[in-house]
Design a protein that fits this description.
The protein is an alpha/beta fold. It has one domain: Rossmann fold (3-Layer(aba) Sandwich), CATH 3.40.50.150. The chain contains four helices and six strands, in the order αβββαβαβαβ. It has a six-stranded mixed β-sheet, sandwiched between helices. The chain is globular and about 50 Å long.
């Protein structure tokens, strides 16, 4: 297992899930159920392709208390629509756990691997879709080689930022309707 994946699994082991309804968007290959610290859920539904496509404006017709959308956003073409769809899946004050890659190699399915996200980009997407970021877990490189690469290649990194970050896992709270 990659260090990147180890960080996600370690994070999930800190999450207590107590909810009537949980949606796991994109969870068909690796369902979130059984990977969290605790799980007290009445109804658990996996929403995945081809039946559910985050890139297309969708009203699923049902709302839940919690949504997980892990390791999905790199495959999307229209992240603003996807975040809007996550909002529509949640009841008022619902919670979403979403992961975003920043530095990660091209991976399978190669023909669909499309986007990477900055911390600012994640915050802007969340705000656009009426979410408040209530927690942000920074995934980081195991070694110092990423920041060394930037320096050796003469890249100008913004001051005051941690440039060893490889991705983000955010906890979002729905604060408005769309």
């Amino acid at each position: 297992m990659s260090y990147y994946r180890e960080q996600l699994e370690a994070y999930l082991k800190t999450v207590d899930v107590v909810a009537d309804t949980v949606f796991d968007v994109g969870g068909r290959q690796k369902p979130v159920q059984g990977r969290t610290k605790s799980w007290q859920v009445r109804e658990y539904t996996i929403l995945d392709l081809p039946e559910y496509n985050l890139d297309v404006p969708t009203d699923y017709g049902k709302q839940g208390d919690v949504v997980f959308c892990l390791e999905v956003f790199e495959y999307l073409l229209v992240p603003t629509v996807a975040m809007t769809n996550l909002n529509k899946l949640l009841k008022k004050d619902g919670i979403a756990y979403v992961s975003f890659p920043f530095i990660y190699p091209l991976h399978n399915e190669v023909e669909f691997d499309s986007l990477r996200y900055t911390h600012t980009g994640v915050n802007r997407l969340a705000a656009h879709a009426k979410f408040e970021v209530t927690a942000n877990h920074f995934r980081k490189a195991k070694t110092g080689s990423l920041t060394k690469y930037y320096a050796e290649d003469g890249m100008r990194a913004a001051k005051g930022h941690n440039h060893a970050v490889t991705g983000f896992i955010v906890r979002l709270k729905k604060v408005g309707e769309l």
